[in-house]
Amino acid sequence: MTIEIRPITQGEAVEYMRLTPWVSGFPQEEPEPVAWYTGRAAYPPLVQPTAEQLEQYCAGLLTDWYRPQAAFVDGKLAGGSAIVSVELTLPGGQQVPMGGVSWTAVLPTYRRRGLLRQMMGALLDDCRERGEFLAGLSASEGAIYGRYGFGPATFQHRWEVRRTDAAFRTPFTDPGRLELVDGATAAAVWPTLHEQIRAIRVGEISPSAGRWAGLAAGGLPADGSGPAHHLIHRDATGAPDGAAIFRLPWAPDPADAGVLALASLEALNPDAYRALWGLLLDFDLTKRVVAARRPVDEPLRWMLTNPRALKLARTRDNLWLNILDVQRALEARTYAATDALVLEVDGVSWRLDAAPEGAACTAAPGVPADVSLTVQELGSLYLGGVRASEFRDAGRIREHTSGAVSRLDALLRPDRAPHNAMAF
Ligand SMILES: CC(=O)SCCNC(=O)CCNC(=O)[C@H](O)C(C)(C)COP(=O)(O)OP(=O)(O)OC[C@H]1O[C@@H](n2cnc3c(N)ncnc32)[C@H](O)[C@@H]1OP(=O)(O)O
């Protein structure tokens, strides 16, 4: 068996696309929000793309944004993956390039022969050659990607709230206004709103190419979830400062009727956030709101008279991070305190001089480490979404200097949990 790993040519694009989850089908452990209530798996392909659609899609496939690698076994295309070029927002606000591993699949008849391992080597080499010191992915299964150095760094909640349980603690007078708009208007608002959000939200990711195109097009999804409804909030000057997308899915079972399924909600300030939820939680003819891919520290819970009304249905890891260059990564973010620690990462010692203004990280060979860890734990810690003390107590981080793990936590402590609503 001869295995060759290389980028595809334009002439191989259709064959490559056929093995990606988009075309080959992808049993999904976390279906789209509306699918929980309509009972169908709302992940593409709901219907197989036609040959013409595939050709159209492949025409624009090979770009600087989408960097595929494929595995050929004895000349036959048997596996594929890609790096998408995105940016990640770090503590301190810097938006740095990140290689996003995506669209990975190996044909079922070629699995467990090391094709992913070899493709991953090529993908991560590509990131290093381009100077990307971070790679990220969202994992189809939790046991696969740790071996390559990826650790879960952001998390999401799925929750629901019954309309009758949702009362706000305090009355609210909106200084701005809400507007239901069509898809074209929403498509004009979301890109700017998302740019404003990702400038201030640690963990947020730049949008994929064409991310907003579908909003203007509208159309009915084949899963019975009904049309998207677009809600915009404008501040007192009329500038958009929040938006939500929701659906009112049809349900065959009366027990599932009356659901408002939230697809997205972003707000730049507490007024917009309160106004959007105020309308969505008290929407006539609905019984409950279900929301997926929400931040793990959703402020809404604390705005309700009964914080238990917001029922957590699921926590899910979202972005997995791989630190490809420890020195550059540790210098690229800012820290919540001023301190110096020696971290041994995969056997290499680094002295980190960290402060709210920034940091210096220098090689410290032979210097006794305060804390030892691997790049996998560092990936999880990097944005502040997991505490070092959790890893210490799980036996995954070793503390050589008493109190060093608490000091590391004090450095990495985030204002808000890192969160990315954008996927790639
Ligand atoms: C980032 C994303 O794109 S997520 C989407 C991932 N895609 C899918 O899940 C689609 C369905 N699955 C597949 O196509 C394949 O099984 C893949 C891509 C997950 C793995 O491809 P393979 O070529 O079979 O993996 P490969 O043989 O290189 O295995 C590499 C290692 O991962 C392990 N591994 C592979 N798949 C799994 C799995 N599902 N669960 C646990 N371990 C796994 C292997 O045992 C091997 O371990 P080792 O290095 O200790 O020997």
Could you give me the name of the CATH homologous superfamily of the largest domain?
A: Gcn5-related N-acetyltransferase (GNAT)
Mean pLDDT: 91
Any guess at the CATH architecture of the largest domain?
3-Layer(aba) Sandwich
Give the distinct bound molecules.
Answer: acetyl coenzyme *A
N- to C-terminal separation? 33 Å
Instruction: Give me the CATH fold name of the largest domain.
Output: Aminopeptidase
Kindly state the number of beta strands. Answer: 19
Number of helices: 12
Q: Please estimate the helix content.
A: 10-25%
Q: What do these coordinates show?
A:
By secondary structure, the protein is an alpha+beta fold. The chain has three domains: 3-154, Gcn5-related N-acetyltransferase (GNAT) (Aminopeptidase); 157-316, Gcn5-related N-acetyltransferase (GNAT) (Aminopeptidase), CATH 3.40.630; 325-412, Nonspecific Lipid-transfer Protein, Chain A (2-Layer Sandwich), CATH 3.30.1050. 25% of the residues lie in helices and 29% in strands. The protein has twelve helices and 19 strands. The strands form three sheets. It has a seven-stranded mixed β-sheet, with helices on both faces. It has a seven-stranded mixed β-sheet with strand order 8-9-10-11-12-7-13, with helices on both faces. Strand 9 (229-234) and strand 10 form a beta hairpin. The chain is globular, with a radius of gyration of 23 Å. It starts with a strand and ends in a 12-residue tail after the last helix. Acetyl coenzyme *A (ACO) binds at residues 79, 101-106, 111-117, 137, 139-141, 143-144, 147. Acetyl-CoA binds at residues 112-117, 140-141. Homohexamer; trimer of dimers. Belongs to the acetyltransferase Eis family. Keywords: Acyltransferase, Transferase.
